[in-house]
Amino acid sequence: MARDRWPIDGYANRAGIVMYEWIIPLTDLVVTGLLLVIGGNLGSFLNVVVHRLPRGESVVHGGSHCPSCGSAIRWHDNVPVLGWLLLRGRCRDCGAMISARYPLVEAIGAVVIGGVAAAELLSGGRTLPGPAFGVCRPGADNLLLRPDPLLIAVAVLHGWLLFNLLLGAAVEADGRVVPARYRRTVLGITLAVVVGWSALLPVGVGFEGPAWMARGPGRGLLIAACGLTCGALVGATSTAAGRQGTMLIGVALGWQAAATIALLRPAIGWLRALLASLVPPIPPGGECDGAIFGTEASSESARSDLASATAEPWSSIDPEGSPLPEVGASPALRPPADPDRGPFLSRLVEPITLQFQQNEYPGGDLLMATAVFLLAWRWLWWGLVG
Fold first, then answer.
1. Going residue by residue through the chain (386 aa), what tens digit of pLDDT does each one get?
2. Which residues of 363-372 are buried (b: 16+ CB within 10 A; e: fewer)?
């Protein structure tokens, strides 16, 4: 009887090996790709928020359209990053230039938000400190078959944090400030979430307190209050984006995270400056077709002339959902579009170069420092507590 069953058992063993070697890694790859796509779409939506929020406009109502010709943006042109590449940085209908800022924000959202979520979820929480995480088997199959609600909620909270840090960095690079009402709303929502579910905060305040502070809403309120205070102190000398970012980090992650990230931010800035020294400078008078994500010294005079000729600012665009053409000068001031103007990829490379070459970029450095911290949180915490 055992001999008759041997071929079947051998086939089952071989099938199990094939599943382990191929199906499980492919499942991890698919789930990782899905999380990156979600992060890219969040970056695409963030383009809408960056444009409309400082102007007090609705981020929900109103469809996307080309500001040059008024044509509606097709759904297949709204695919994050890929839509811009397929269009070669131009409007499909009128050929107007599309700012490279939009695919940059979408790519950053995919890598930072989607990448951190993938690391936390697929590792089974092994990037997070605390006894509640890292106890289940890693892998997408375990995540799909036996999902951990706490781990998923933590990943969502961290995605919310990174989204708002990216928003602050993008608005800062646009020369604007996130409205105070929005900042208060984000802080209030984050505070309510961590107080209502204090298990989302894996690290406490570091000292023993009354029993009511050791669990439940009391624990969440104490950690968030200490984190908010520490974030306000370490970000007091930073820009508005840096200050509001460190306060939000303190509420969502605790005071230890706010202090550590404040120490990491200068290191990230130093690394960015080091990379900038390896990038050839943009020639004087060079222009990125209006596709600058940040400051642009060579076209300040052009922007001043444009601001006096038009009622809308240079960055007044309607980027709902994906990249849209930049608003240019009026037809009387703008030269005819040249379909062969400049290399296509230079309109994507030059904005990146300008970002690297900025002396101060607190919002962007804070975003990257937070992502690095979240990926190494458990090991950093072990180093602190021994």
1. 444 444 545 555 666 666 667 777 888 899 999 999 999 999 888 888 887 777 776 666 666 666 567 677 776 767 777 877 777 777 777 777 777 777 888 899 999 999 999 999 999 999 999 888 888 888 888 888 888 999 999 999 999 999 999 999 888 887 888 888 889 999 999 999 999 999 999 888 875 555 555 667 888 999 999 999 999 999 888 888 888 899 999 999 999 999 999 999 989 988 887 877 776 655 544 433 333 333 333 333 333 333 333 333 333 334 444 444 433 333 333 334 444 445 666 666 776 676 666 666 778 889 999 999 999 998 887 666 54
2. bbbbbbbbbb
pTM (two decimals): 0.77
Residues 47, 322 contacting (CB under 8 angstroms): yes
Cα-only R_g, the chain: 24
In the chain, DSSP assigns E strands to none
Residue 307 CA neighbour count, 13 Å, CB half: 9
Nearest to 374, CA basis, from 4, 191, 126: 126
